[in-house]
Amino acid sequence: MRIHTPKAFAALLKREKPSKVLIVGTESAFVKKTVDLLIDAWGVPKESVREFFDPSQLTLDELSDALFSASLFSSASVVILRDCWRFIEGLSQKQRAVFKRMLEEKPSDVCLIMISEEEGDLERLPVVRFVRDLSFEVVNCRKARPQEMKQWLKKRLRGMGLEDETLLEALVEASGGSMEALQRELEKLTVGGRRDSISNVKGYTPWDLLNLMVDGDWRAFEAFDYLVRIGVSYLAILSTIQLGLRNMLLWKAGVRSFSRGVEIMMERSLQKIGVDGARRLYKRSIELEKKLKFSASGDLARRAFEEFIAWALVEGIRSP
């Protein structure tokens, strides 16, 4: 068993292609990045990625089938077991012995990624002790310490020409200690800074995407594709859509007020989809956010976002 930081593990993947990996920690940004890098390193199509989210609904036989059955789409496959300690904890002593034997005998062309969102002294965690003698690569995706976050953010802000200590402190506070949330706050700044330049090249902003979805305009897919191509992350696009929907609902409820021009646009949108439609779209966006946070690959995340747009255009907003 070897223990790595996410950065050290990323460097390892340039030299090796480990087939048994345990990811431990609660920093979901690091967890997702590590999973994405592993899938890229193995180079398998999305059809060869099997992901188990709910350990309470998983049996040893189902997991064995995933580990030992050859993929129809590739010579290799990736199996992802989330909340793995809860799965192991639910096994009897006899079943745990069977599971260990499965891990030892697993084919070399199958990459098993086990994820356990726990914090604490890594080597004392039960899940780490369980895999100690099983040749696992362990990636420690703990939450970043405040000083580590500040150093990382200061470097990013400097690159954007925003060396502002007040802004740095505000972003760190808004993130609540989560690197993922900090990245999202930074992406919002990036999106906001690009709006003029995007307009100049007759491109699209996330606000345009929301308006096109409200209008039932199929150019929403064109807008989404454009935003992805210029490097705006899925979560940054979605957070802007959610902000627009929240503002509509808060304004209609009389909780917030905006400039007259903005209120006219909101009234126009609500006339098309109604308050119930805005609520349905917002609820669906929350479901998409969960999928994006836990999607195993960029392809899966993109497909989930495109399904969200299609749902909105075809039926979701306008039908109860």
Would you mind describing this structure in some detail?
This protein is globular. Helix 10 crosses helix 12 (234-252) and helix 13 crosses helix 14 (298-316). It has a 6-stranded parallel beta sheet, sandwiched between helices. It is an alpha/beta fold and 320 residues long. Mean pLDDT is 82; it is low at 192-202. Helix content is 62%, strand content 9%. The chain has 3 domains: 2-140, P-loop containing nucleotide triphosphate hydrolases (Rossmann fold, 3-Layer(aba) Sandwich), CATH 3.40.50; 144-177, no CATH class; 192-316, Up-down Bundle (Zinc Finger, Delta Prime, domain 3).
Task: Summarize the model shown.
By secondary structure, this protein is of the alpha/beta class.
How are the SSEs placed, and which strands pair?
Elements: E1 2-4, H1 6-12, E2 20-24, H2 28-42, E3 49-52, H3 60-68, E4 77-82, H4 84-89, H5 93-105, E5 110-116, H6 126-131, E6 137-140, H7 146-159, H8 165-175, H9 179-200, H10 206-215, H11 219-229, H12 234-252, H13 260-294, H14 298-316
Parallel strand pairs: 1-6, 2-5, 2-6, 3-4, 4-5
Helix pairs in contact: 7-8, 8-9, 9-12, 10-11, 10-12, 12-13, 13-14
